[in-house]
Give the backbone structure.
Amino acid sequence: MSTTDQVREDVTIRFAGDSGDGMQLTGSLFTNTTALLGNDLRTLPEFPAEIRAPQGTVPGVSSFQLQFGSTRILTPGDECDALVVMNSAALKANLSLLKKGGTIIANTAGFDKKNLNLAKYPEGINPLEDGSLSEYEVIEIDVNSMVKEAIGDMGLGYKDEDRTKNMFVLGLLYWMYNRPMESTMDFLNQKFGKKNPQIADANIRVLKAGYYYGETAEIFNSRTQITVEQADLEPGTYRNITGNEALVLGLVAAARKSNMPMFLGTYPITPASDVLHGLAKHKKFGITTFQAEDEIAACASAIGASFGGSIGVTSSSGPGIALKGEAIGLAVMLELPLVVLNIQRAGPSTGMPTKTEQADLMQAVYGRNGESPLLIVAPKSPADCFEMAFEAVRISLEHMTPVIFLSDGYIANGSEPWKFPQEKDLVDINVEFEKPRHAEEDAPFMPYKRDDRLVRKWAIPGTAGIEHRVGGLEKEDVTGNVSYDPDNHQKMTNIRRDKRDLVANNIPEQDIDQGNESGDVLILGWGGTYGSIKTVVHQLRKEGMDISHAHLRYINPFPKNLEKLLKGFKQVIVPEINDGQLVRLIRSEFMIPAKPINKVKGRPFGVSELKQEILDLIGEEQAVIS
């Protein structure tokens, strides 16, 4: 380390540009390099919903934010320390996210008259020249010219040359934050080296040009590199992983642990499509993937696979889950295992496809016709998707019932370091199949004969002597015959409800993530609010407040001890990225006057805004009490 280096505990960077500028790749490569250095980190990719939004416009801006540090990092950061903007639209869309005194690295080629007009700046106004950025350190670089100077002699076409400019800013940021280039060069050689070595060479040249420009140009006021030391993580082997990647691996692990084939029936939809892409790569582990013609067919095919003896999985987001509703109800009626993956996005209808939200919770609990109870699990972070996907499969198989895995776009696309689990640490998955019956047995086969958990055995078609009827019509208990008897319908409704409730005996009790098991204030969260809540509660406890944090991962049924835990606190506050859904379930289930904090903007809670909301709500409650 140079004597001129600054050592920082954490840094937040945001890359922003046109959706064709490669900002997602740039952010991902910076993230992977940072993970290899042993920093803890969290990311927030954001991109347009349109396949190709109008170039140079604010709606067409794509961005990637990450926070990395030498301490525990739980969010992608509130305000950025550095903002990279490839054009004027990127600056306009993201300037409000940069802290005062932060650094702007601007590609001046994206601030010409054409780009300023496309970004709808007033005539004759250039933010790089009008003094409006005086509160920031602004570094102006004509990246396009630098790229041409670096690879102009290679004879590449304009488009191929232009596509390398993200590597220049990546190299510059590598120098600025004392990151090595080797892993990115390896990536470029692997991606292009065999098919197009000239493109690989061009990108590597531009990457180095950006790095050495930072080293020699003395463009920063501080004229120093910034170093973030390695984080003190638990010993083990780590990789950087997104939520959807962890979800895929969790499903594969569950299939292998149960020694059963898995079938995914799905239809592409943002932000769930990566699950199809990921599982399709694992055919050698007994995974079959099927892209159906629509959402209903996708779910029905997964139910058929479960009936045939595979682990049936179907994936979608809120709009697709609505279409799957009747088929999911069929799985409830048939009492077959089915894992339903809902990677939530902002709604209603098709809403904002690339923005995050937690607004499908009521849909998951109640969004089917009739009394149709099923189970819900929810991961709290990208890495936690592995464990909760595994749990969704385990519970579905062991209790012969559909389970909804409720993630969201923030978790699915975000990333964090993930410690590789050991096979021996994964719990066993116990599946009970009906055994073949001999013709001479007198008693007829009863497909819905139950154990003390109200669970029937899995009756696989083709097994000798266990022929039976299935369908969506109400069935007679034990026999499975169609029944319209009113008393039987009441009995079956109660059985389906009680069967769900008994799953509480097969899930962990709710724990306190931070703080005491009783006291003044409990912040209760679920899903992607975990990092923000945990950070805020940690800060408030350091300031002397009696405040605790619990995070739900099993939502239907709730953990057995949840009511007792909640009633040990004077105030319960529930932050959610919706208009108040878990808080309504808590109020109705436990008669507790829980207070909501809601945000519906397509973005996760910032730490500072959530902290202020909590303090305001606590203050109001104390004023009412006094």
